[in-house]
Amino acid sequence: MELAQVRLLVSDFTVCYRFYADVLGLKPQSGAVDGPYEKFSPAVGSAGIALQDRAMMAEVLGELADAANGHRSLVVLRVDDLDAYCERITSFGVRLLHGPARMTDRMRVAHLKDPEGNLVELQEWLLMSG
């Protein structure tokens, strides 16, 4: 078994596309700005995030026609320099909910929300001391 992607169901596809491509700096696979689907990849690693138009999926699974509520996901991205990355994305108007701050002795994190309210955690892995 191989994890292909984490897919987020979104209502405003174009706004979310711009957020993941322009603000977070992930590379879109096809450039389908208006959807209904796009996969994004970081510069390194094999994990991916995909956006899927919620209305399209509601045609397959009717229960998805209801408005989403509550936190249903947490997208986690590892960055090399958390402070510099947070400075860059806040210049786009992103509001950090938390951090950058140490979470454990091995990692620093910051949290934000994408335009649809999905939580995003940015991680900077620290070298083990000692």
From TrEMBL:
Query: What InterPro entries would the database entry show?
Result: Glyas_Bleomycin-R_OHBP_Dase, Glyas_Fos-R_dOase_dom, MMCE/EMCE_epimerase, VOC_core
**Any one Pfam family match given in the protein's UniProt record, by short name:** Glyoxalase
Q: Does the keyword Iron-sulfur apply?
A: no
The answer to whether the entry has keyword Metal-binding is: yes
Which segments constitute the VOC domain? 2-125
Top-level taxon in the UniProt lineage: Bacteria
Its recorded name reads VOC family protein
Source organism: Streptomyces gottesmaniae
